[in-house]
Write a structure and sequence with these properties.
This protein is mostly helical. The protein contains eleven helices and five strands.
Length: 297
Amino acid sequence: MTDDPRRDAVVLWLAAHGVPPIADAATMVVRMVNATRGFEVDALALLNAAEDALAQAAAGGPLTGACGLADAGPDHPLHGLARAAVAVDVLIRAPDFAESSGHEALLPLPSRSMRHYAASEPAGCWALNLVLVARGIVPPVTGIVPRTVFRLDVTDAQRAAALVDHSTHEALAAFTNLERIESVLARGRDALVGLSRNARAFEAWTLLAALGPTTRKQLMRALGLSRAGADIQARTLAAARLVGLETGGLVSPALPGSSPSPSASLDHGPLCAAAADLDIAMAEIDRLLTRGLDKRN
């Protein structure tokens, strides 16, 4: 994982404000990358406002109603999306969250100027998405709220369509990612089953499956190992042909061989519960989309 101050700020905040499973994972990443740089005051103010909006037990406003989620109770498959919509209805009144439309601008060139569309600077939508992750409201989907829902120059129906379409896209992406991770984990289990020291090596493999290439120093911090211990686990993974050991101590997942094992099924793996929740939510989103098409026709 490369050095990134934005990542540092996100994982530090999640470690301090997330529900236990989120906070525990974020704390591990904080330790792993030695994160020290938190959010600035302005960003923290946006996060506080998003937390307050999400905590309100409001009945919802125009967006919630336009999405057809006004009656989505705690047991509803899209309760998380409904809470997000309620929060948007609260936050859109705040200037730090309301999004403005983009504008045409002139791009100066050596011999002439060219018109192009310049998007507006992002407002506080990111803060609401991060709070939704921290509260575990829409696991394992991140970024379900698009900037469009905070636009003041579009209709409620257009904002609702943007929210439903965007959340559908993100749910599908999350499902694909779960399938990928489950397949990678299964590959690691098969490769390490006959090796010594496989317990800690599989822990290292789970980190690589989720986070991608890491350094041996980062593995050492994440797993609480000595330098020698991290080196042993990296070499164990390399001996199993799961990773490549590169210069600078980088440990990178290797591509599967020419005869990879069959894809693991999400129905039986450790991620099956998350996949099942996604299936239910996606089916409910399909119902909302179908109802919207019926109304337009």
